[in-house]
Amino acid sequence: MNATSTNQLDALLRQMASLADANRLRLLRLLERHELGVAELCDIVQLPQSTVSRHLKLLSDEGWVVSRRSGTTNLYRMILDELDEPARQLWLVARKQTDDWATHHQDQVRLIEHLRRRRGASRSFFAGVASQWADTRDQLYGQAFLRDALIALLPEQWTIADLGCGTGELTRDLAASVGHVIGVDNSPEMLAAARAQTESLSNVELREGELESLPIEAERCDAALLILVLTYVPDPAAVLNEMHRVLKPGGKAVVVDLMRHDRDDFRRQLGQQSMGFTIDELQTRLTDVGFTRARCRPLRPDPKAKGPALVSATAMRPGS
Q1: For residue 181, pLDDT beyond 90
Q2: I want to staple 183 with a disulfide (CB 3.0 to 4.6 A). Which of 19, 31, 47, 162 is the partner?
Q3: Would you say the pTM of this structure is higher than 0.70?
């Protein structure tokens, strides 16, 4: 056996050994879909911090997880596409074999409750700023991204879903150009402001609901927008999956959100769940839920904007 083969075998044995622990499997099942800190993981898996930290160090050393600093906290996640092929194949086997594991399902129940509490922080923020949100948003991000989102839209007969419609300015503007607009938000205060913006428009429909379980029929819309929304949700994949569901075959998705940044004070001030997305990450997230022709690009910063730079993405649901 040559040196290269020996090194490959050693790496494989280390990877197998690092998966040969029930608690590390539990952590990886959580971190494959969510970015979480040590304290959050302790709460979910109900293990001491020293135990969780020890396992995370080993998983990090072996390349299973990556971490980044957010304020005083290290956040961890697994990025499946960045694993080498042997590790990726090992994980796919391990994941399949643990799909029916009772302990994993228990962890998922506690994870859902944890994410629900996270969502409450974002709701509290919006309840307090609904009346000033339009001015706050323009001050932080400018208005150029609205124009970019509108340009991405096509025929006037389309039905558009404005997901996370907030106070309704974009919903109102879309209504002048398309056949029907469905605005969805989970904040009653935001929807009240949106109704004031759109009450005279017969082709606007506002619905209260969660973005992870949209109150819209499957294949109802020709296009759907998520404008400055994904950073506020604990599970972006679930929201993108719902966006995919409500689009007709051939329907278009448009996402505008924060490019990944390191301003934790900004994130906390705005009640956001994450620090934004890299271009590659956003494109991968769209592809993972079934979208095709995903294209992402940074948006030109508005000279007056005080917030982080933005990224824009478009994609299509496959079909004619």
Answers
A1: yes
A2: 162
A3: no
